[in-house]
Every structure is written in structure tokens, then in C-alpha cells.
């Protein structure tokens, strides 16, 4: 086999075509790589929906449930509004904190298109004789579940032990306890799943 010598103009054309082909291939791979990274980033940046149930209130006295729910959800909405990638969903139902039914979590997450569910509990301290004598101190406990009903983590926040609060309203104590419990849940979640950028 003999090599055919190329004349000057044909050889220059082949070199130019080769450079154009290499440049086009490089640019194509660059765009494909950028599109892949963008698709991965969009999956991580999607808004996560977190379903919050009404807190179980201890002691179980009907008169304190509504103010407790109002203070709890006021604190949750204030906290969640500071995060751009989360949306708070509220279920107007109370789930027993110590006996959480997996199917209930799955059903509510499915029906509300939620990624996570939080089951809370607010415990008041009885400090005197009589039915309605309570301290303004509370313990706010939370359990975090994924959409499949799998338990992820739990935490609690005792406003007396953490802040040594003796004065102030009960509503304020519930808000402080709720914020503390949310921070604890987030801290525990990030220990379990360090690659996650989720905020609760």
C-alpha cells in the first residue's frame, strides 16, 4: 500500500477538519457534563415537604390542647419559613407519640405528597394540687419518619434543663422547646446522613 502525498492545500484542509472535529467533540462532552451536573443539582434542590402532626399533649386535658397546638405550629412555621427548600404541611390529627403506627405515617405522607413526617409531644409539669396547676416549663419531644414510615431519629428539649427558665409564659416555653427540638432533630439527621443538605 502506497501513501498518496497530499498537496499543500489538501493537507491544510485535512488538518483544519481534524481540529474542528476535536473541538466539536470536546464542546459536546462539556455540554453533556454540564447537563448531568444540573440534573443532579435540581434533584437536590427540590422543595421537601415535611408533614407535622398535632402534638400529643401530656397531661391529656382538652382545655390546653388548642393553645399548645397554636404555640407549637407558630414556632414550626417561623422556623420552616427561614428555610427556602422546605414546606410545612400540617395534619389536623394527633398520633400517639409512644405508639406510632407505620401505616398511618405512610398513608398521610402519600396523601399529602410529603417526604418526611414529624410526630411531636408536649409534656407539661404539674406543680401543685388541683387539676390545672402546671409549671410554665415543658418538654417538647419529636420523632422523625421518612415517607415509607421508617423511623429515622428522635429528640427532646426540656426548657427548664436547657435554659433554666423560671419566668416567662408557657407559650414562650413551647416555642423555645419546639425550636430546640427541631434543631436537635436536624443535628441527629445530619449525623445519620451527612451528605444531606436538608433543613427541617
General description of the model:
This is Pyruvate decarboxylase. By secondary structure, the protein is an alpha/beta fold. It folds into two domains: 1-45; 47-192, Rossmann fold (3-Layer(aba) Sandwich), CATH 3.40.50. The chain contains five helices and six strands. The protein has helices spanning 8-45, 62-81, 102-112, 159-163, 170-192, and strands at 48-54, 56-58, 86-94, 116-126, 134-146, 151-158. Strands 1, 2, 3, 4, 5 and 6 form a six-stranded mixed sheet that branches. Helix 2 (62-81) packs across helix 5. The longest helix has 38 residues, at 8-45. It is elongated and about 105 Å long.
Give the helix/strand layout:
Blueprint: H1 8-45, E1 48-54, E2 56-58, H2 62-81, E3 86-94, H3 102-112, E4 116-126, E5 134-146, E6 151-158, H4 159-163, H5 170-192
Parallel strand pairs: 1-3, 1-4, 2-4
Antiparallel strand pairs: 4-5, 5-6
Helix pairs in contact: 2-5
Organism: Chryseobacterium defluvii
Transmembrane segments: 20-39
Keywords: Membrane, Transmembrane, Transmembrane helix
Entry keywords:
200 residues, alpha/beta, Rossmann fold, 2 domains, 6-stranded mixed β-sheet
What is the tally of beta strands? 6
Shape descriptor reads: elongated
Mean pLDDT: 81
Q: Can you tell me the CATH superfamily of the largest domain?
A: ABC-type transport auxiliary lipoprotein component
User: What is the CA-CA span between the terminal residues?
Assistant: 72 Å
What structural class do helix, strand and pairing data support?
alpha/beta
CATH architecture of the largest domain: 3-Layer(aba) Sandwich
What Rg do the Cα atoms give?
A: 28 Å
At the first level of CATH, the class of the largest domain is Alpha Beta
